[in-house]
Design brief:
The structure holds 3 protein chains of 3 kinds. Chain A is built from 14 helices and 2 strands; from the N terminus they run H-H-H-H-H-H-E-H-H-H-H-H-E-H-H-H. Chain A is mostly helical. In chain A, helix 2 runs parallel beside helix 13 and helix 7 packs across helix 11. The radius of gyration of chain A is 21 Å and the shape is globular. Chain C is an alpha/beta fold. Classes of the chains: A mainly alpha, B mainly alpha, C alpha/beta. At the A-B interface, helix 6, helix 12 and helix 14 of A face helix 5, helix 6, helix 10, helix 11 and helix 12 of B.
Chain lengths: 340, 353, 345
């Protein structure tokens, strides 16, 4: 395929086209989409979403899933808030929160990998357990005073520019993740495991270690997302961030990461997160209610995930029409691992 | 030659209880006895009544979820389907008078629920989305629909027809109506799973989807039927919700998704698929409901509920997996061995009756 | 198979059409601008979906139209203060000149409200206040003191013996500003000699404002405090759930239930067959929306700054600013079986 054609059918290019479409239409409809205030608040609000998406990406790439990220966000956020409230040194409190997030991710990884339990089941359970933990600590109350460091991180601008600090921080994380997944042996292992776990095992990749690492990364970034949440909203409340699960997963899938693992790019996830944030903002400006926005994201997820298989089955059908062979119609993933 | 089969076994096919089910049942009985002995508030009639009725509602929806999990799928949108049907049935069944009311109420609950379930099936089967992501998407879409339906207000108890409003408090032969309905669902679904081709296909799909298709299972049809059944039972649960709470607002059913999955999984339905029964779901609902009740009575924080459900899913999955591996038995207990001899064996068995 | 390919082609077409609907929807919906020349203000409830807030929105819309305000309405679907922050930000971005808000958590929304005011957007709170720094005026449904007194009197008069016994408060989320205010006032009032024999055992805050959580919380609380003979529930969601629970468990004769309720929800519990609830109170939410709109109009005009003693006319009634930049929208009405049916706002 010529490089131009390759570029045109790249998923990321499609995302960029969609972003431009939303910008143009949204700006035309409301004239305020591109105001600096709106862009800033949109960026701040979507920071959590993107951070979660970064964490979940390697997990989905290895064909696992991690639903507990919002639980880890809530738990570490509540713990940090609690410690801040009781006068604990800011940096110590943050460290404790991040360690808790790491441990939660590690627990996920150990349960899934060492016990060989389905990731869906485990993370569904740990999501409840971790969120429940935040409820047990804070019950119905909310903590609303935070150290200025945290607030600055979450809501202030970078130096003297109009760009929020979180954008810079997430940019750095994005670069690290891109390098990690696309430029290291670890990253190649991730893709290999997602493509075919048994084959990866037989080719000497330390499958267990890599899979556990992905869960740890997911936990860590979920904890960091909790910190960003605290800085932006300056509120710690049990069960916080629960509504970010769907958008985070949507961002990953929309970003081109296959739900069955093995393909996808980090820049794609970034573009998808930007698209989602802009879409939510545009809809919100236009008077779409909260549920309208969530519904729109649901539909977008369906569209995002519906098209590639359609393309694939069309290609399959085309190929098979030319050389008929008995085919397996599978109801789900067919490379030997448990269904998602 | 197989030993003569009791009427119960003839009806259900194989033995109703598996070994691990019996263990779970024993666990439930033991906990009940201990609680009744030590907690005075537990053994009051009103507490038991409350416990059974609340559990019945969860159990019905959990049975539907169990069927979906058996086929190696999952349905996260049951809470929203329940909420929508709660509103719709409460609102519309008032238009029918006399005996037509309850009949139409049940028909609508099942019908609307099944329709939403078909939406899920469409995404999973035609668009080939993994069920977890598909139902995550439909959860948000159906919840949005539920909110739009309620339209800033809610369904008031005064709008609900009397037969539905009183359903919760009624009792047939001394046992609450909710419990009867749960038992009927259990019997029907168990029959479907054990004695029909549908049931066999469900287990086959859960055990090994590719081989199932190769064997001639009509995968697409079954997927649609499975999700429709789950949706229908969620809808029925919605009808019971209206009776239990009287008022239905946009938050109806919103906390129920995790509870229902926890009930099924704790009861022994394997999330790998292919293993478990409807009775498992009921037992799981009962066990979780009991523990919740005991937590309340011993004044442990109400905020422990989510932790309880989450932890119990993890623990149950771990225990079942480790135990079954330790016993070197295949994880699939209700084994539909996907090989050539299977159909022949089953043919011999069924013809022996 | 032929049907398969047709199915797939139609599905492909369907997804493409729905993808195309997004921009079409934009363009179509962009024609929904309000009355020409009207000033846009945005009303944010604690959460959408219950009648009181819908009524307030209706009041705002009709009165606003008369005053030249275009009163838009929107909010989170659950009582989440952080979601409210997003709505506040969107209102500012969209160029709305005023925000009317009933706060889920005063501290959480404060930074966003302060930011709004720095962008020259005026903030008027209603039903549930924010922090002083975030708003100009607070319109309360009715005064906190009258709510507390009414609740205590309704409960006390029904207890046997009168004004004697233990009771609990079944409230809403722990962060709801108005709940916190009312409950605090009630606790203060309890020290008065008239209520000296009434004992408040605990205040219950369910995890969320839903019927299911309220029911579970009540069940827990009653199990933990078996000697309780009264329940005050100052939230329409919880009092309805409580009434249903008491009815189903035949506790109506043992426990007195009162509080703030929605007449439509309470009506079934005040009949001859089921008289679980003898009295409850509420005020007119539509009226609250009306007064809030009036207040916004004058705040935008600059004549209302929240100073004690200022006044403005709203639908022929003179509203006066009380200490704390507070305006009272009206009086609470006590409902009994005699007048519950006729309530219809």
């Amino acid at each position: 395929m010529s490089s131009v054609r390759w570029l045109l059918v790249r998923w990321e290019v499609g995302l960029i086209a969609l972003i431009l479409l939303v910008l143009v239409l949204g700006q035309a409809a409301d004239h305020d989409l591109l105001s600096s205030f709106n862009l800033q608040t949109t960026a701040l609000n979507s920071a959590v979403l993107l951070c979660l998406a970064f964490g979940v990406t390697p997990v989905i790439m290895t064909s696992d899933i991690d639903l507990s990220v919002v639980g880890i966000l809530a738990l570490s956020g509540v713990v940090m808030g609690y410690l801040f409230l009781h006068g604990v040194n800011t940096w110590l409190a943050i460290a404790v929160g991040m360690v808790i997030a790491l441990v939660c991710g590690l627990i996920n990884g150990l349960l899934v990998v060492l016990f060989d339990l389905p990731a869906l089941a485990v993370t569904l359970g740990t999501m409840g357990a971790y969120t429940g933990g935040s409820f047990l600590i804070l019950k119905g109350l909310a903590i609303t005073t935070f150290p200025s460091v945290v607030v600055t991180l979450g809501s202030a601008n970078f130096l003297n520019t109009q760009i929020p600090i979180v954008v810079v921080v997430l940019g750095v994380i994005g670069i690290i993740m891109t390098y990690l997944l696309h430029g290291t042996v670890f990253g190649r292992s991730v893709f290999a495991i997602g493509g075919n776990r048994k084959a990866a095992l037989f080719s000497g990749i330390p499958v267990n270690r890599v899979r556990i690492m992905t869960f740890v990364i997911s936990g860590f970034l979920a904890g960091f997302a909790g910190l960003l949440f605290l800085g932006n909203y300056q509120t710690a409340q049990a069960g916080m961030g629960a509504s970010e699960l769907l958008p985070a997963i949507t961002a990953v899938i929309l970003g081109g990461v296959s739900a069955y693992g093995g393909t996808g790019t980090v820049p794609g996830v970034v573009l998808a997160a930007i698209l989602l944030a802009l879409l939510q903002s545009a809809l919100g400006l236009h008077g779409f209610s909260g549920e309208g926005q969530t519904m729109a994201i649901g539909f977008l997820l369906i569209i995002a995930i519906g098209i590639p298989p359609l393309v694939r089955t069309y290609q399959d059908w085309n190929r098979r029409r030319r050389s008929p062979v008995p085919r397996f119609a599978s109801a789900g993933p067919s490379n030997g691992e448990e269904g998602m | 030659m197989a030993p003569p089969r009791t009427a119960l076994q003839q009806f259900f096919g194989r033995s109703v209880f598996k070994r691990s089910d019996t263990a779970l049942l024993a666990l439930v009985v033991i906990i009940t006895l201990i609680a009744a002995a030590t907690l005075g508030d537990f053994r009051t009639l009103s507490n038991i009544n409350n416990l059974l009725n609340t559990t019945a509602l969860i159990a019905i929806v959990a049975i539907g979820e169990a069927v979906v999990i058996l086929a190696r799928q999952i349905d996260l949108s049951v809470g929203a389907i329940l909420g929508i049907c709660a509103y719709v049935v409460g609102e519309l069944s008032g238009h029918f008078s006399g005996a037509l009311g309850p009949i139409m109420g049940v028909v609508m609950a099942l019908g609307f629920g099944a329709a939403f379930g078909v939406g899920n099936a469409f995404l999973v089967s035609v668009l080939k989305m993994p069920a977890i992501i598909a139902t995550l998407a439909t959860l948000s879409i159906y919840t949005g629909f539920q909110i739009i339906l309620n339209n800033g207000s809610q369904l008031y108890l005064t709008q609900v027809p009397p037969w539905l409003a009183g359903l919760r408090g009624n009792a047939w032969f001394g046992i609450g109506t909710f419990i009867w309905i749960a038992v009927i669902c259990l019997v029907v679904v168990t029959f479907l799973l054990r004695r029909t081709r549908f049931g066999r296909d469900v287990y086959a799909l859960g055990s090994n989807p590719d081989a199932a298709a190769y064997l001639g299972v009509r995968v697409r049809l079954r997927i649609f039927q499975i999700f429709a059944l789950c949706g229908a039972l969620a809808g029925l649960g919605g009808m019971l919700y209206t009776s239990q709470f009287g008022n239905v607002d946009a938050t109806a059913g919103s906390g129920m998704n995790l509870t229902v999955i926890a009930a099924a999984v704790v009861g022994g339905v394997s999330l790998f698929g292919g293993s478990g029964t409807a009775a498992n779901a009921v037992l799981g609902a009962l066990l979780l409901g009991e523990i919740q009740n005991i937590l309340e009575l011993t004044r442990i924080s109400i905020f422990a509920e989510q932790t309880l459900q989450g932890a119990s899913i993890v623990i149950a999955v771990a225990i079942y997996a480790v135990v079954s591996r330790r016993l070197r038995r295949p994880v699939r207990r209700q084994s539909i061995d996907v090989d050539v001899g299977h159909d022949a064996a089953l043919a011999v068995e069924t013809s022996g009756e | 198979m032929k049907t398969n390919s047709i199915l797939r082609k139609s599905v492909a077409a369907l997804t493409l059409i729905s993808a195309a609907m997004i921009p079409v929807g934009f363009i179509a919906a962009s024609g929904t601008a309000g009355a020409a020349g009207a000033v846009k203000v945005f009303m944010i409830p604690k959460f959408t979906g219950i009648a009181p807030f819908t009524d307030a929105a209706a009041g705002c819309k009709t009165e606003g139209a008369a005053l030249g305000l275009d009163c838009l309405y929107g909010g989170p679907t659950t009582g989440s203060a952080t979601d409210q922050v997003n709505f506040i930000n969107n209102a500012v971005s969209a160029g709305d000149k005023g925000i009317l808000i009933s706060n889920d958590d005063a501290a959480t929304t404060n930074p966003a409200l302060v930011r709004a005011e720095s962008h020259k957007v005026k903030v008027v709170t209603f039903d549930s206040d924010a922090l002083k720094t975030g708003r100009t005026v607070y319109v309360e449904g009715t005064s906190t003191t009258s709510i507390a007194t009414t609740e205590l009197n309704m409960l006390g008069s029904q207890l046997k013996p009168a004004y004697t016994g233990k009771f609990i408060i079944l409230s809403a989320q722990a962060t709801d500003t108005n709940q916190v205010q009312w409950n605090a006032q009630l606790k203060k009032d309890l020290s008065m000699p008239k209520y000296s024999k009434m004992k408040l055992v605990s205040i219950i805050n369910p995890p969320s404002d839903t019927a299911a959580d309220a029911t579970t919380s009540l069940q827990s609380a009653l199990a933990a405090n078996p000697s309780v003979t009264g329940v005050i529930s100052p939230t329409t969601v919880a009092i309805a759930a409580a009434a249903q629970y008491l009815t189903t468990n035949n506790l109506c004769s043992k426990i007195v239930l009162t509080g703030l309720g929605d007449p439509d929800q309470m009506e079934p519990f005040m009949t001859a067959k089921n008289n679980c609830v003898h009295s409850f109170a509420l005020w007119n939410f539509t009226q609250e929306g009306v007064v809030a709109a009036c207040a916004m109009k004058f705040v935008l005009a600059g004549t209302l700054t929240g100073k004690t003693g200022q006044s403005f006319m709203c639908k022929g009634v003179k509203e006066v600013v009380l200490p704390g930049q507070t305006v009272s929208a009206g009086a609470a009405e006590v409902y009994t079986s005699a007048n519950v049916k006729s309530a219809g706002f």
